[in-house]
Amino acid sequence: MRRAAFYVVLAVAAATFLYPFLWMAATTFKSPAEVGALSLLPDQPTLDNYRLMWARAPFGRALLNSMLVATSVTLSVLVFGSAAAYSLARLRFPGRGILNAVTVAVLLVPAQLTLIPMYTLIVQLGWVDSYAALIVPFAFNATAILILRQFFLQVPRSLIDSARLDGMGELRILFTVFWPLSKAPLAMVGIITFMGAWNEVLWPLLVVRDEQLMTLPQLLTVFSLGGGAGPRQLATKLAAAMVLVVPVVVAYTFLQRYFIESMASTGIKG
Amino acid sequence: MANVSFEHVRKDFGTATVVQDFDLQVSDGELVVLVGGSGCGKSTILRMLAGLESVTSGTVRIGEREVTHLPPRERDVAMVFQDYALYPHLTGRQNISLGLRLRKVPKAEIDRRELWAADILELDPFLDRKPKHMSGGQRQRIAMGRAMVREPAVFLFDEPLSNLDAHLRGQMRHEIARMQRRVGTTALYVTHDQMEAMTLGDRLVVLDGGRIQQVGRPIDVYGAPANKFVAGFIGTPSMNFLDGRLERERDGLVFVCDTLRIPLLGERRPDPTVHSGEAVTLGIRPEDLALAGAAGMGTIPGNLFLAEVLGATTHLYVEVGGRRLIAAVPSGPAPPPGGVVSLSIDHSRLHFFAPDGSSLLHDGHA
To answer: Mean pLDDT for chain A?
Structure first.
């Protein structure tokens, strides 16, 4: 009986979270007359909203831009983050303690505070309206370093010793011994970074004005602001939002096992 | 294969000195065991030889080559670790061959060496399993195989059997001895287990506080320990120690400890420079004590308070004037605990130590 009540509560909670998302998904397939309805099944399903969206702004290009930016940011955060984490966790060198403290301190500085100096820097470098402006500022990440460092500290020392005796250099140890052992934390850092880069709106709005270089959320924001508020426009904007959301949901579905495993093993709350 | 030499090697960690003035020559093909308690510096010495730890001062040589400051991969050594240190994501076979592949050894040669190691160590049944699907003993064999196929100049073993259960430990001890003899590679073996040290080593190096206490064949170290630390460390149960003094009487020397008087009847005597009345510690191995039929000249009377029957041997815990002595005697009918017993001593196997711990034997052993 208690178990049944428990499931009812869970189901209600899940529905509360799921309904808006499902409504959004359903609405993108509805005709303008149906957009205001709360039903989840369109009477006459149509792809018109998607066609209209695609025709009115370069969403295809924006999708590719977003893919490129988010993938590059994620890869570099993983490569540079794990290299930094390995050095801070497993190599002895003067100043290691200070570097560790600085890495933590970086987390205390709100991103909004660095926005203007960073923008000025990008202008000085002549990177406005370039992929570099979208990728480089996010290519290094202190949270990623700390999460990976915490995990790397748990790898037995003898494994590193053994790899060194086998003739491996430090980079090879990192990528051929530590990476295969760290799938869970790497997946977690990867997915958090990818979602962050994928959803970023503010920074692209500042540094990119060329429509051909805009990322998906940026284009969506610009499109929403200028697209009108009628039922047709609403459904079209929701269609664009779906294009933004689906890749992240798919990626999460594939990686959620590692994600949950890593949350449990590192004791870091998301 | 090569000989190994340490010359005046010292290692400091910050302000703490963990190894000092370490001198040792290991001959080609020899198996030398470094033995000592926790923190005696034995593993650090091994790691310095492997290049995994820097040397503060002194020189390390492998063969004719000075390796003091070379990185591990240039030293031609292979190491077997206490926790096996197998790569968890690779199979046994991949673990064994990885070092060779990194050194760009031709495929045919890798296969040949893999077969050779698999044959000697009987690895075949679990070569294609990952470490998590192997038992402790199987993992240790793979780790040994990985060291063997490298065909290194020196094998290093860092407490390789500590994580195994007693039965498997005995078995693997034989395997290591057999493997090392068969391949004939110089080996240094670190352990805190003196049973391993006694049975495996051609020579023992007993360490304490980062210094060598004694180097010698196991039987010599056991029979004639250089000092009280070695005497107490090597041998199970530990040697019995009685603090007292020597007195010269009409019939010869007598060891006096409170009310206990033990005439020194055998050929084993303290150094003649020890004067009557000087403080001396008498050392008696448990197996050199026996139950005497009756109290008499030279026997030690005491109260038996515990008898541990181990099978063939029984350990008798006897209280003598407030001190506890242990006698290891063949199992048989023993007096009940609480009863009075007399212990006889094998006078030909006594040990004497000065107050500073050094051995006072003068019959040429020490």
So the answer is: 88
